[in-house]
Write a structure and sequence with these properties.
- The chain is α/β, with parallel strands linked by helices.
- The radius of gyration is 17 Å and the shape is globular.
- It has a seven-stranded parallel β-sheet, sandwiched between helices.
- Helices cover 46% and strands 16% of the residues.
- Helix 1 crosses helix 8, helix 3 runs parallel beside helix 4 and helix 6 crosses helix 7.
- The structure holds NADP nicotinamide-adenine-dinucleotide phosphate.
- NADP nicotinamide-adenine-dinucleotide phosphate binds next to helix 1, helix 4 and helix 6.
C-alpha cells in the first residue's frame, strides 16, 4: 500500500474510536474526525501513546464546506487520504406516527449525506493515487427495525451507495464495502437502553439471548472487519456488505 492516510468519521468514541486505533496500529496515519475537535483528544492520545500518528479535526460530516476543509486539512497535514471510514452516526428513534421531519432529516443528513459528501471529497485523492478503500457503516437495522424508519432507511441507503461507489471507482483501484453491525456495546446502544427505560445490563442481556455466539459485540469486532477490508490484499473484495452480528440471523 502507498504511504497511507486514513480518515475515520465519528471517531471520538465507540466503533469509530476503536477503528481509528486499529488502523493506526496497522500503520496508517489517522485523521480522527468528529463534531467537536476537543472530543477527539482521547482517541488521538491513545494512538500517539501506542506510537502511531493521528490528527484531531472537528467537522460536521453533513456540511459540505466543513467536509471540504477537513479533507483539505488532512491532505495538507498528513498526506492524501486513501482510506475513508464513514462511521459518524446518530439515532432519532420513534414510531412512524411520532417521527418528526427533523428526526427524519437529521438521520438522513448525518448517515447518507455525510457519507456522500465525505466520499466525494476524498475520491479525488484515491483516483489520483490509483488506490483507495472506502468502508461504510451500515447496520442490521437496514433490514427493517421497529421505531427506526429513518435509521433503517439510511442504513439500507448506505448499502446502495457502497455498491455504486464500488462500480464507479473500481477501475481506479478503489474498493468500497459496508459493514452491518448487530448489537455493539457503545454509547449509542446505552442511549437506546435509556430511551426504552431499562438498564444497559438488562438491555444487553436481552440482546445477547438471541445472538448465536452468546455475547454482545464490541467496537473491536467492527474495527477488525474494517481492517480486513482496508488491507491491500483485499483488493478483489468490493461492493460487499458483511453482517457482523455474531450469527447469520439479525
Ligand atoms: P456513538 O458511540 O454514538 O458514536 C458516534 C459518533 O459520531 C459520536 O462521536 C458522534 O459525535 C459522531 N457524530 C454524530 N454526528 C456527527 C456529524 N454530523 N459529524 C461528525 N461526527 C458526528 O456510535 P457507535 O455505536 O460507535 O456507532 C458508530 C456507527 O456504527 C454509526 O454509524 C452507527 O449507526 C453504526 N452502528 C452501530 C451499532 C451499535 O450497536 N452500536 C450497530 C449498527 C450500526 P457526538 O458525540 O458529538 O454526537
Amino acid at each position: 500500500m502507498p504511504d497511507s492516510v486514513a480518515i475515520v468519521t465519528g471517531a471520538a468514541r465507540g466503533i469509530g474510536a476503536a477503528t481509528a486505533r486499529r488502523l493506526a496500529a496497522d500503520g496508517h496515519a489517522v485523521a480522527v474526525i468528529d463534531l467537536d475537535e476537543k472530543s477527539c483528544a482521547d482517541t488521538v492520545s491513545a494512538i500517539e501513546s501506542a506510537g502511531g500518528k493521528a490528527l484531531a479535526i472537528g467537522a460536521d460530516v453533513s456540511d459540505p464546506d466543513q467536509v471540504q476543509s477537513a479533507v483539505d486539512r488532512v491532505s495538507a497535514e498528513l498526506g492524501a487520504p486513501l482510506v475513508l471510514v464513514n462511521n459518524a452516526g446518530v439515532l432519532r428513534d420513534n414510531m412512524l406516527f411520532k417521527m418528526s421531519e427533523d428526526d427524519w432529516d437529521t438521520v438522513m443528513n448525518v448517515h447518507l449525506r455525510g457519507a456522500f459528501l465525505m466520499s466525494r471529497a476524498v475520491q479525488k485523492h484515491m483516483v489520483e493515487a490509483k488506490f483507495g478503500r472506502i468502508v461504510n457503516l451500515s447496520s442490521t437495522s437496514a433490514l427493517g427495525n421497529r421505531g427506526q424508519a429513518n435509521y433503517s432507511t439510511a442504513k439500507a441507503g448506505l448499502q446502495g451507495l457502497t455498491k455504486t461507489l464500488s462500480i464507479e471507482l473500481g477501475k481506479y483501484g478503489v474498493t468500497a464495502n459496508a459493514i452491518a453491525p448487530g448489537f455493539i456495546a457503545t454509547d449509542m446502544t446505552k442511549a437506546t437502553a435509556e430511551r426504552v427505560g431499562v438498564s444497559f445490563e438488562e438491555f444487553s442481556k436481552a440482546a445477547v439471548g438471541s445472538i448465536p455466539v452468546a455475547r454482545a459485540g464490541e467496537p473491536d469486532d467492527i474495527a477488525n472487519t474494517v481492517s480486513f477490508f482496508v488491507d491491500e490484499r483485499s483488493s478483489f473484495v468490493s461492493g460487499q456488505v458483511i453482517y457482523v452480528a455474531g450469527g447469520p440471523k439479525v
